[in-house]
UniProtKB/TrEMBL annotation:
Organism: Micromonospora tulbaghiae
Chain spans, region Disordered: 1-21, 61-83
Protein's recorded name: ATP-grasp target RiPP
Amino acid sequence: METNTKAYLVGGPRDGSSQDADGKALVEIEIDGMIHRYIRTTKQHGDDAVVYNYDGMVAPGGGEPGVEDPAARVASPKADEQG
């Protein structure tokens, strides 16, 4: 049985393009210092590629701090009551 190693990318910055995926479940592409992720689906694109859907963008170093500063959070009155 022949397996397709080509990924057809759907969505995101590489929408409509193809690249070799080596049968991986996740394809990560670095663009402008950020990692864009595509996840394999069960769909075929033609006879030679598996469809990979865009899953979003992440920083190469993992999660980054958001707008909220956890140290500056004010606990709820109910949380204070429960100690």
